[in-house]
Amino acid sequence: MTTTGAIDSSYYLDSQNKRTPSATLDKDDFLQILMVQLQNQDPTSPMDDSKFVDQMTSFTTLEQVMNMSEAVEYMAGNSSIMSPVLEYSHMIDKNVTYNEYDLDTGEITDTITSKVTAVTQQGGYAVLELENGKSIFADAVTKVSNE
């Protein structure tokens, strides 16, 4: 009589697919559950039409909410979507202070305050049109005030 040694469980346990549970369900999971329900329903007593319509409506609503969520996340993460004109339009009728520089030395020659009358765009950057007739890039502003 031959005896066999103990079976090493690592041969068959390591080859099994391991499932990692998830705390959330996405639209694919919802659709998969719905399909399993349809496949396993009793043919002599099929699912009530109104329940099926309710589930499809829930699925459609879930999909729309997921798409909206993705769109909002994309917009929040990509601030370059917003036009510089829209981004700086709140500065119209505000007083802004900026410095003028000597082109040769780079030293400040004057500090000027003027009211913003309009916002335009040049090369993808916001340009503030001022009441004193000058135009400056928005990043040149050193102070914004209501007075």
Automatic annotation (TrEMBL):
Superkingdom as given in the UniProt entry: Bacteria
Keywords (A to Z) from UniProt: Bacterial flagellum biogenesis, Cell projection, Cilium, Flagellum
Biological process per Gene Ontology, one example term: bacterial-type flagellum organization
InterPro entries, per database record: FlgD
Pfam families: FlgD (PF03963)
Family: Belongs to the FlgD family.
Protein known as: Flagellar hook assembly protein FlgD
